Amino acid sequence: SGFIPDADISKVTHDPESLRKFKSEREGLGVSFPHRIRTAEALTYTPFGNGLVLNFAELLIESEHLGGSGAPDLLFVGLSSPDYLGHSFGPDSLEVADNVVRTDRDLADFCRWLDQHLGGRYTVVITSDHGVQSIPEVARDMGRDAGRINLRNPGANIRTFSELAEIAPARVELDKAAATMLGRHITPTSEITDELILYFEEPAIYLNWGRISELKLSGERVKRAYRDAARKMKGVAGAFTNSELLTMNAPKSDLEAAVRNSFRADRSGDVLIALKPGYIWDYNGTGTTHGQPVEDDQHVLLMFWGSGIVPGQFDGPAAPTDIARSLGALLGFQAGGVRTRILPAIATTLP
Q1: Residue 265: which residues within 8 A CB-CB, separation 6 or more?
Q2: Is the peptide bond before 203 cis (omega within 30 degrees of 0)?
Q3: What percent of the chain has pLDDT over 70?
Q4: Total-model pTM
Q5: Hey, which of 81, 97, 309, 344 would disulfide with 49, CB 3.0 to 4.6 Å?
Protein backbone atom coordinates (compact mmCIF):
# COMPACT_ATOMS: atom_id res chain seq x y z
CA SER A 1 0.00 0.00 0.00
CA GLY A 2 2.94 2.33 0.58
CA PHE A 3 1.56 3.23 4.02
CA ILE A 4 4.64 1.74 5.71
CA PRO A 5 7.92 3.35 4.59
CA ASP A 6 10.30 0.94 2.86
CA ALA A 7 12.91 1.57 5.55
CA ASP A 8 10.51 0.33 8.23
CA ILE A 9 9.06 -2.75 6.51
CA SER A 10 11.85 -5.03 7.76
CA LYS A 11 11.20 -3.88 11.34
CA VAL A 12 7.62 -5.13 11.34
CA THR A 13 7.81 -8.13 8.99
CA HIS A 14 9.87 -11.26 8.40
CA ASP A 15 8.78 -12.51 5.01
CA PRO A 16 11.68 -13.99 2.99
CA GLU A 17 10.84 -15.35 -0.44
CA SER A 18 12.28 -18.76 0.47
CA LEU A 19 9.69 -19.28 3.22
CA ARG A 20 6.57 -18.19 1.33
CA LYS A 21 5.90 -21.81 0.35
CA PHE A 22 4.75 -22.26 3.96
CA LYS A 23 1.96 -19.74 3.48
CA SER A 24 -1.47 -21.12 2.57
CA GLU A 25 -2.69 -20.48 -0.95
CA ARG A 26 -6.32 -19.33 -0.86
CA GLU A 27 -8.83 -18.58 -3.61
CA GLY A 28 -6.18 -18.22 -6.31
CA LEU A 29 -4.33 -15.42 -4.50
CA GLY A 30 -0.99 -17.23 -4.49
CA VAL A 31 1.67 -16.72 -1.81
CA SER A 32 3.70 -13.85 -3.27
CA PHE A 33 2.94 -10.25 -2.36
CA PRO A 34 1.27 -8.26 -3.91
CA HIS A 35 -1.71 -10.43 -4.93
CA ARG A 36 -4.06 -10.24 -7.87
CA ILE A 37 -7.68 -10.44 -6.64
CA ARG A 38 -9.84 -12.25 -9.19
CA THR A 39 -12.99 -13.26 -7.28
CA ALA A 40 -15.32 -12.04 -4.53
CA GLU A 41 -14.24 -15.00 -2.41
CA ALA A 42 -10.59 -13.99 -2.78
CA LEU A 43 -11.51 -10.47 -1.67
CA THR A 44 -12.41 -11.80 1.80
CA TYR A 45 -8.78 -12.91 2.26
CA THR A 46 -7.60 -9.32 1.79
CA PRO A 47 -8.04 -6.10 3.82
CA PHE A 48 -10.64 -4.93 1.30
CA GLY A 49 -13.13 -7.32 2.88
CA ASN A 50 -13.18 -4.98 5.90
CA GLY A 51 -14.37 -2.08 3.79
CA LEU A 52 -17.35 -4.06 2.53
CA VAL A 53 -18.40 -4.98 6.07
CA LEU A 54 -18.00 -1.44 7.42
CA ASN A 55 -19.90 0.03 4.49
CA PHE A 56 -22.70 -2.41 5.22
CA ALA A 57 -22.64 -1.37 8.89
CA GLU A 58 -23.11 2.26 7.84
CA LEU A 59 -26.04 1.27 5.62
CA LEU A 60 -27.55 -0.71 8.49
CA ILE A 61 -27.22 2.18 10.95
CA GLU A 62 -28.98 4.51 8.53
CA SER A 63 -31.72 2.14 7.39
CA GLU A 64 -32.56 0.92 10.91
CA HIS A 65 -32.24 4.43 12.43
CA LEU A 66 -29.79 3.21 15.08
CA GLY A 67 -28.59 5.74 17.64
CA GLY A 68 -31.79 7.69 17.72
CA SER A 69 -33.78 8.66 20.79
CA GLY A 70 -34.87 6.13 23.38
CA ALA A 71 -33.07 3.00 24.55
CA PRO A 72 -29.48 2.50 23.38
CA ASP A 73 -28.87 0.34 20.33
CA LEU A 74 -26.16 -2.31 20.26
CA LEU A 75 -24.46 -3.23 16.98
CA PHE A 76 -21.84 -5.96 16.59
CA VAL A 77 -19.53 -5.62 13.58
CA GLY A 78 -17.22 -8.55 12.84
CA LEU A 79 -14.21 -7.95 10.60
CA SER A 80 -13.17 -11.47 9.62
CA SER A 81 -10.67 -10.71 6.86
CA PRO A 82 -7.79 -10.19 9.35
CA ASP A 83 -8.49 -13.71 10.66
CA TYR A 84 -8.61 -15.28 7.21
CA LEU A 85 -5.42 -13.70 5.91
CA GLY A 86 -3.65 -14.06 9.27
CA HIS A 87 -4.14 -17.82 9.16
CA SER A 88 -3.02 -17.98 5.55
CA PHE A 89 -0.01 -15.67 5.54
CA GLY A 90 1.10 -15.46 9.18
CA PRO A 91 1.51 -12.44 11.50
CA ASP A 92 5.03 -11.67 10.27
CA SER A 93 3.99 -11.34 6.63
CA LEU A 94 3.80 -8.36 4.32
CA GLU A 95 0.10 -9.18 3.92
CA VAL A 96 -0.63 -8.78 7.65
CA ALA A 97 1.44 -5.59 7.92
CA ASP A 98 -0.51 -4.12 5.01
CA ASN A 99 -3.76 -5.33 6.57
CA VAL A 100 -3.00 -3.61 9.88
CA VAL A 101 -2.47 -0.18 8.35
CA ARG A 102 -5.41 -0.51 5.97
CA THR A 103 -7.71 -1.69 8.77
CA ASP A 104 -6.56 1.23 10.92
CA ARG A 105 -7.58 3.63 8.16
CA ASP A 106 -10.88 1.83 7.58
CA LEU A 107 -11.74 2.13 11.28
CA ALA A 108 -10.75 5.81 11.29
CA ASP A 109 -13.08 6.43 8.33
CA PHE A 110 -15.86 4.53 10.11
CA CYS A 111 -15.47 6.63 13.27
CA ARG A 112 -15.50 9.83 11.19
CA TRP A 113 -18.73 8.60 9.59
CA LEU A 114 -20.18 7.95 13.09
CA ASP A 115 -19.16 11.48 14.14
CA GLN A 116 -20.97 12.96 11.16
CA HIS A 117 -24.16 10.92 11.66
CA LEU A 118 -24.31 10.51 15.44
CA GLY A 119 -22.25 13.36 16.84
CA GLY A 120 -20.98 12.35 20.25
CA ARG A 121 -23.79 9.87 20.88
CA TYR A 122 -21.84 6.65 20.45
CA THR A 123 -19.28 4.44 22.15
CA VAL A 124 -17.06 1.99 20.27
CA VAL A 125 -15.24 -1.04 21.65
CA ILE A 126 -12.59 -2.76 19.54
CA THR A 127 -11.32 -6.21 20.48
CA SER A 128 -10.51 -9.64 19.09
CA ASP A 129 -11.42 -13.23 19.88
CA HIS A 130 -7.82 -14.47 19.87
CA GLY A 131 -4.24 -13.79 18.83
CA VAL A 132 -2.12 -15.89 16.48
CA GLN A 133 1.25 -17.61 16.38
CA SER A 134 3.93 -17.21 13.75
CA ILE A 135 4.19 -19.71 10.94
CA PRO A 136 6.57 -22.20 12.64
CA GLU A 137 9.09 -22.20 9.79
CA VAL A 138 9.21 -18.41 9.91
CA ALA A 139 9.62 -18.45 13.70
CA ARG A 140 12.55 -20.88 13.42
CA ASP A 141 14.15 -18.64 10.80
CA MET A 142 14.03 -15.88 13.42
CA GLY A 143 15.80 -18.13 15.93
CA ARG A 144 12.79 -19.24 17.97
CA ASP A 145 11.79 -22.74 19.03
CA ALA A 146 8.75 -23.68 16.96
CA GLY A 147 7.16 -26.53 15.10
CA ARG A 148 4.07 -28.35 13.88
CA ILE A 149 2.55 -31.38 15.61
CA ASN A 150 0.45 -33.63 13.41
CA LEU A 151 -2.11 -35.91 15.08
CA ARG A 152 -4.64 -35.73 12.26
CA ASN A 153 -7.12 -38.54 11.75
CA PRO A 154 -6.48 -41.26 9.13
CA GLY A 155 -8.72 -41.57 6.11
CA ALA A 156 -10.44 -44.78 5.07
CA ASN A 157 -7.51 -45.68 2.82
CA ILE A 158 -5.02 -45.88 5.70
CA ARG A 159 -4.57 -49.48 6.83
CA THR A 160 -1.28 -49.82 8.69
CA PHE A 161 0.84 -47.80 11.10
CA SER A 162 3.48 -47.29 8.41
CA GLU A 163 0.85 -45.63 6.21
CA LEU A 164 -0.38 -43.57 9.16
CA ALA A 165 3.19 -42.44 9.86
CA GLU A 166 3.35 -40.85 6.40
CA ILE A 167 0.49 -38.44 7.16
CA ALA A 168 0.63 -38.14 10.98
CA PRO A 169 4.06 -39.12 12.35
CA ALA A 170 3.45 -37.61 15.78
CA ARG A 171 0.32 -39.71 16.17
CA VAL A 172 2.26 -42.92 15.54
CA GLU A 173 4.94 -41.74 17.97
CA LEU A 174 2.27 -41.17 20.60
CA ASP A 175 0.60 -44.54 19.95
CA LYS A 176 3.88 -46.46 20.17
CA ALA A 177 4.97 -44.77 23.40
CA ALA A 178 1.58 -45.39 25.05
CA ALA A 179 1.53 -49.00 23.83
CA THR A 180 4.91 -49.65 25.44
CA MET A 181 3.61 -48.33 28.77
CA LEU A 182 0.62 -50.66 28.44
CA GLY A 183 2.76 -53.72 27.62
CA ARG A 184 1.68 -53.79 23.99
CA HIS A 185 3.82 -53.76 20.85
CA ILE A 186 3.14 -51.86 17.64
CA THR A 187 5.09 -52.47 14.43
CA PRO A 188 4.93 -50.66 11.07
CA THR A 189 2.75 -53.49 9.70
CA SER A 190 0.31 -53.39 12.64
CA GLU A 191 -3.26 -52.62 11.55
CA ILE A 192 -4.55 -49.25 12.69
CA THR A 193 -7.53 -51.09 14.13
CA ASP A 194 -5.07 -51.69 16.99
CA GLU A 195 -4.87 -47.94 17.56
CA LEU A 196 -6.47 -46.91 20.83
CA ILE A 197 -7.19 -43.38 19.59
CA LEU A 198 -10.62 -43.18 18.01
CA TYR A 199 -10.45 -39.51 17.01
CA PHE A 200 -8.35 -36.39 17.41
CA GLU A 201 -10.04 -33.00 17.68
CA GLU A 202 -7.64 -30.38 18.91
CA PRO A 203 -6.60 -30.20 21.66
CA ALA A 204 -7.89 -33.63 22.69
CA ILE A 205 -7.75 -37.30 21.85
CA TYR A 206 -10.90 -39.39 22.14
CA LEU A 207 -10.12 -43.01 22.98
CA ASN A 208 -11.50 -46.12 21.28
CA TRP A 209 -13.42 -47.51 24.22
CA GLY A 210 -14.68 -50.51 22.26
CA ARG A 211 -11.14 -51.64 21.53
CA ILE A 212 -10.02 -50.91 25.11
CA SER A 213 -12.83 -53.16 26.34
CA GLU A 214 -11.87 -55.93 23.90
CA LEU A 215 -8.30 -55.85 25.21
CA LYS A 216 -9.57 -55.85 28.81
CA LEU A 217 -7.45 -52.80 29.63
CA SER A 218 -8.10 -50.37 32.46
CA GLY A 219 -9.55 -47.20 30.98
CA GLU A 220 -7.83 -44.98 33.54
CA ARG A 221 -4.53 -46.71 32.87
CA VAL A 222 -4.92 -46.11 29.14
CA LYS A 223 -5.69 -42.44 29.69
CA ARG A 224 -2.65 -42.01 31.93
CA ALA A 225 -0.44 -43.79 29.37
CA TYR A 226 -1.45 -41.42 26.60
CA ARG A 227 -1.15 -38.45 28.95
CA ASP A 228 2.38 -39.43 29.99
CA ALA A 229 3.41 -40.23 26.42
CA ALA A 230 2.11 -36.88 25.22
CA ARG A 231 4.03 -35.02 27.93
CA LYS A 232 7.30 -36.42 26.52
CA MET A 233 6.65 -35.24 22.97
CA LYS A 234 8.63 -32.33 21.59
CA GLY A 235 6.59 -29.14 21.69
CA VAL A 236 4.10 -30.31 24.33
CA ALA A 237 3.75 -28.14 27.44
CA GLY A 238 1.38 -30.43 29.33
CA ALA A 239 -1.34 -33.06 29.10
CA PHE A 240 -4.24 -33.93 31.38
CA THR A 241 -6.82 -36.71 31.57
CA ASN A 242 -10.45 -35.75 31.80
CA SER A 243 -10.56 -37.56 35.15
CA GLU A 244 -7.93 -35.17 36.53
CA LEU A 245 -9.83 -32.15 35.25
CA LEU A 246 -13.06 -33.37 36.87
CA THR A 247 -11.60 -33.41 40.38
CA MET A 248 -12.23 -30.61 42.85
CA ASN A 249 -8.51 -30.18 43.51
CA ALA A 250 -7.06 -26.74 42.91
CA PRO A 251 -5.04 -26.41 39.67
CA LYS A 252 -1.34 -27.07 40.20
CA SER A 253 -0.22 -24.58 37.56
CA ASP A 254 -1.42 -21.70 35.41
CA LEU A 255 -1.39 -24.12 32.48
CA GLU A 256 -3.73 -26.54 34.22
CA ALA A 257 -6.00 -23.65 35.22
CA ALA A 258 -6.21 -22.52 31.57
CA VAL A 259 -7.03 -26.05 30.38
CA ARG A 260 -9.69 -26.40 33.07
CA ASN A 261 -11.30 -23.16 31.94
CA SER A 262 -11.67 -24.66 28.46
CA PHE A 263 -12.80 -28.12 29.61
CA ARG A 264 -16.36 -29.40 29.25
CA ALA A 265 -17.07 -32.87 30.61
CA ASP A 266 -19.81 -33.54 28.04
CA ARG A 267 -17.72 -32.59 24.99
CA SER A 268 -14.00 -32.57 25.71
CA GLY A 269 -11.88 -35.62 24.95
CA ASP A 270 -10.27 -38.19 27.23
CA VAL A 271 -6.79 -36.60 27.17
CA LEU A 272 -6.26 -32.86 26.58
CA ILE A 273 -2.90 -31.65 25.29
CA ALA A 274 -1.47 -28.11 25.49
CA LEU A 275 1.45 -27.03 23.33
CA LYS A 276 4.47 -24.86 24.06
CA PRO A 277 4.81 -21.35 22.61
CA GLY A 278 5.70 -21.55 18.93
CA TYR A 279 4.05 -24.94 18.37
CA ILE A 280 0.75 -25.47 16.55
CA TRP A 281 -1.41 -28.38 15.46
CA ASP A 282 -0.72 -29.24 11.84
CA TYR A 283 -2.99 -30.49 9.07
CA ASN A 284 -1.37 -29.56 5.76
CA GLY A 285 2.06 -28.08 6.48
CA THR A 286 1.18 -24.49 5.63
CA GLY A 287 -0.25 -21.41 7.32
CA THR A 288 -0.66 -20.90 11.03
CA THR A 289 -3.28 -20.99 13.76
CA HIS A 290 -4.05 -20.31 17.43
CA GLY A 291 -5.76 -21.96 20.37
CA GLN A 292 -3.00 -22.53 22.92
CA PRO A 293 -2.81 -21.04 26.44
CA VAL A 294 0.24 -18.96 25.48
CA GLU A 295 0.88 -15.22 25.27
CA ASP A 296 0.69 -14.92 21.49
CA ASP A 297 -2.74 -16.56 21.40
CA GLN A 298 -4.19 -14.99 24.55
CA HIS A 299 -3.04 -11.38 24.17
CA VAL A 300 -5.62 -9.31 22.27
CA LEU A 301 -6.27 -5.60 22.00
CA LEU A 302 -9.09 -4.01 23.99
CA MET A 303 -9.90 -0.38 23.16
CA PHE A 304 -12.79 1.84 24.24
CA TRP A 305 -13.57 5.04 22.37
CA GLY A 306 -16.27 7.69 22.53
CA SER A 307 -18.91 8.87 24.95
CA GLY A 308 -18.32 8.04 28.61
CA ILE A 309 -14.75 6.80 28.16
CA VAL A 310 -11.72 8.05 30.12
CA PRO A 311 -8.77 8.83 27.81
CA GLY A 312 -5.56 6.99 28.64
CA GLN A 313 -3.77 3.67 28.76
CA PHE A 314 -4.52 1.36 31.67
CA ASP A 315 -2.29 -1.48 32.83
CA GLY A 316 -4.00 -4.31 34.67
CA PRO A 317 -6.03 -7.48 34.18
CA ALA A 318 -8.56 -7.20 31.38
CA ALA A 319 -10.44 -9.54 29.08
CA PRO A 320 -12.99 -9.25 26.28
CA THR A 321 -15.51 -10.76 28.70
CA ASP A 322 -15.24 -7.53 30.72
CA ILE A 323 -16.86 -5.57 27.90
CA ALA A 324 -20.44 -6.49 28.80
CA ARG A 325 -20.06 -5.52 32.46
CA SER A 326 -18.27 -2.28 31.55
CA LEU A 327 -20.86 -1.18 28.99
CA GLY A 328 -23.62 -2.19 31.38
CA ALA A 329 -22.13 0.09 34.03
CA LEU A 330 -21.87 2.88 31.45
CA LEU A 331 -25.55 2.52 30.54
CA GLY A 332 -26.86 1.91 34.05
CA PHE A 333 -27.67 -1.79 34.12
CA GLN A 334 -25.99 -5.03 35.17
CA ALA A 335 -24.45 -7.34 32.59
CA GLY A 336 -21.62 -9.85 32.35
CA GLY A 337 -20.63 -12.87 34.38
CA VAL A 338 -19.73 -12.86 38.05
CA ARG A 339 -15.99 -13.00 37.31
CA THR A 340 -15.99 -9.99 34.99
CA ARG A 341 -14.92 -6.46 35.92
CA ILE A 342 -15.86 -2.87 35.26
CA LEU A 343 -12.74 -1.59 33.55
CA PRO A 344 -11.17 1.75 34.58
CA ALA A 345 -11.74 3.20 31.11
CA ILE A 346 -15.40 3.66 32.05
CA ALA A 347 -15.87 7.22 33.29
CA THR A 348 -19.42 7.38 34.58
CA THR A 349 -22.97 6.32 33.91
CA LEU A 350 -24.35 8.13 30.87
CA PRO A 351 -27.36 10.38 31.48
Answers
A1: 242, 246
A2: yes
A3: 99
A4: 0.91
A5: 81
User: Residue 318 in contact with residue 326, Cβ under 8 Å?
Assistant: no
Which residues lie across from 346 on neighbouring strands? Answer: 309
Q: Is residue 142 within 8 Å of residue 181, measured between CB atoms? A: no
Prior bond to 82 cis, omega within 30? Answer: no
**HSE value, Cβ hemisphere, 13 Å, CA-based, for 253:** 9
Burial class (CB in 10 A: 0-12, 13-18, 19+), 206: middle
Dihedrals phi, psi of 206, to nearest 5 degrees: -105, 125
Per this entry, what is the length of the chain?
A: 351
97-152, pLDDT tens digit by residue?
999 999 999 999 999 999 999 988 899 999 999 999 999 999 999 999 999 999 99
Residues 300, 130 contacting (CB under 8 angstroms) = yes
Phi, psi of 236 (to 5 degrees): -95, 130
The Cα–Cα gap between 255 and 102 comes to 36
For CA atoms 251, 256, 258, 263, the dihedral sign is: negative
Cβ neighbors of 25 (< 8 A, separation 6 or more) are 31, 88, 286
Contact indicator for 164, 158 with CB cutoff of 8 Å = yes
